[in-house]
Amino acid sequence: MLNSRDVLVTTTSSLDGITIKQYLRPLSAHVVAGTNFFSDFFASFSDFFGGRSGSYQKQLASLYNEAIEKLKIAAYEAGANCIVGLHIDLDEISGKNKSMFMLTAIGTAVIIEAHEKKQKIESSLKVDNVSSDKLQMLIKKNEVIEQAEQKKLEIDDNIWDFIIQNHIHEVYEYVIFKFKKSIAAYNENPNGYNDFRKKLVSYIDSLPDDERSLLVHKTIAETDDEKLALRLTEIVGELQILDLQRVDDFLNNESFDKQKRVTRLLCYDKPFYNKSDIEYLKGILDRMNNLFVERGTRTMKKQLLSSKEKEMWTCECGKLNDIDSSCSSCFKDIYGFSASDISAQKAISFIKYKIELLEGLL
Predict the structure, then answer these.
(1) Alpha-carbon distance values, 59 to 55, 64, 105, 192 (Å)
(2) Distance CA 203, CA 51 (A)
């Protein structure tokens, strides 16, 4: 499934061996930063070498990457899968005794042959030369993966930076293992949990889109740890990585408790929607209507000192309850949802509303 991160970007006006099927339109993206963005550069010269500042380069790279990401999102919205002719300018804007830097990225949105793009990328994986930095990175990567597999990896700031910068998905399961421990120790060390979660979000966000979506949704679907499932669901919302196809797979789970996780996931969004998503949502809606039915049993009970009968319901746990109340024993409603869950009725109403809005827009 194509998304903005899959959009190919090149500075050339054409691609060797790749056919451009259609030119769509010119695009531009702007990133503005105040002069204080660079104010710390000259506070420390410890990383200067040959007249260049590592901090300065890092900040410029951040602006550069943000502008390109905005351009890729614009291309995705235009229906393109490639941007050609990328050009970037950095200008200073002054006025009223204030200065700002503006980085402008421009390019042309085009549609290229998808299979040719894939072949081009695959052919580029082999290179004639490998730098020593690349070799050292691969050595360290293998060491980190091995330590993670042995559950001996200490995830300090340096390791976080390394696995984030190099998008190392192979340590995902170990990182989640450590996250579970952090959740369990929240009451004793809330700051430690918050710090770990912040870095976990950055790590997940650094992974390729298809990879991170698969890993996170798979963990939510399979884990028996409700707290972990809840925290990862929140991250799905924060990063907007909801995958409707994978959410639909949740409903195939034999565990009702795991099926219920769909209702919370569907409260979050994807970054973009298209017409096929409407069909996915309709399919999910039909399945939810069939799956999330009353699990309790309705019954009538005679009232004391009256010939009238009162409607009640019997919970799966065996407790008899008023029809409008949750179970006084297990605290679940007649559909099997607890107060901390997003109820099936609420989720279904929200999906219907979302479908209605999307049909009016697409």
Answers:
(1) 6, 9, 16, 27
(2) 32
Predicted confidence (pLDDT) at residue 52 exceeds the cutoff of 50: no
Q: What is the DSSP track for 200-261?
A: HHHHHHHS-HHHHHHHHHHHHHH-S-HHHHHHHHHHHHHHT---HHHHHHHTT-S-HHHHTH
Task: Give residue limits of the domains in the chain.
Answer: 4-123
* Rg of the chain in Å (alpha carbons): 26
pTM for this entry? 0.67
Cβ atoms of 230 and 264 closer than 8 Å: yes
- Mean of the per-residue pLDDT values of the chain: 84
User: How confident is residue 95, by pLDDT bands cut at 50, 70 and 90?
Assistant: low
Asked whether 172 and 197 are in contact (CB, 8 A), the reply is no
Tokens of 166: 């190099």
> What integer is the mean pLDDT of 195-199?
96
Decide if 23 contacts 110 (C-beta within 8 A): yes
CA–CA separation, 301 vs 322, rounded Å? Answer: 10
Q: Reduced to 3 states, what is the DSSP secondary structure of residue 54?
A: helix
Q: What phi and psi, each to the nearest 5 degrees, are found at residue 196?
A: -65, -45
CATH of 4-123 among 2.120.10.30, 3.30.110.70, 3.40.50.720, 3.40.50.2000: 3.30.110.70
Report helix angle 209-222 to 226-239, nearest 10. 150
